[in-house]
Design a protein that fits this description.
The protein has one domain. About 40% of the residues lie in helices and about 20% in strands. It contains three helices and five strands; from the N terminus they run H-H-H-E-E-E-E-E. The radius of gyration is 18 Å and the shape is elongated.
Length: about 140
């Protein structure tokens, strides 16, 4: 696999250096997502049709939600501008393109972990995480 598909390849220490920044961004993103879900639940109580709508339709009818979704998009963009990939908001999963041997892989970090200790192949995901060679620390599958 060619490395040019990613703008940046991270070492585990490069990724670890971003964790304090990512913790702040993920915490904010999760908070915004919770706010959005709460507001949509309130709307469903008033109009159950909201339950079957796409988010874009809900926002069109309820533009007061737009600041929350705009903030979520800004945070996601900030994360991606660091060169990493946001994989799951609720789990707080972020992948970092990296090289392991001669293969491009993702270093995998989950919100709450003190450092990056796992990786997975690009075509797999969180469930296939493996410990980084020489990494100390625990990880959960």
């Amino acid at each position: 696999m060619s490395t040019h598909q990613f703008e940046k390849l991270f070492s585990s220490s490069d990724a670890d250096a971003l964790i304090p920044t990512l913790e702040v961004l993920i915490r904010d993103l999760q908070s915004q997502a919770a706010t959005l879900r709460d507001r949509i639940r309130e709307l469903v109580r008033v109009d159950e049709n909201v339950n079957s709508m796409r988010l874009s339709q809900i926002i069109e009818i309820h533009p007061e939600l737009r600041p929350v979704t705009t903030r979520m998009a800004e945070i996601a963009s900030q994360i991606e501008s660091l060169g990493c990939l946001l994989k799951d908001i609720d789990l707080g999963l972020v992948d970092f393109p990296s090289e392991l041997g001669d293969e491009v892989v993702f270093l995998c970090w989950q919100f709450g972990e003190p450092r990056v200790t796992t990786w997975h192949r690009i075509d797999s995901g969180f469930g296939d995480r493996q410990p980084l060679p020489g990494a100390r620390g625990t990880y959960l599958n």
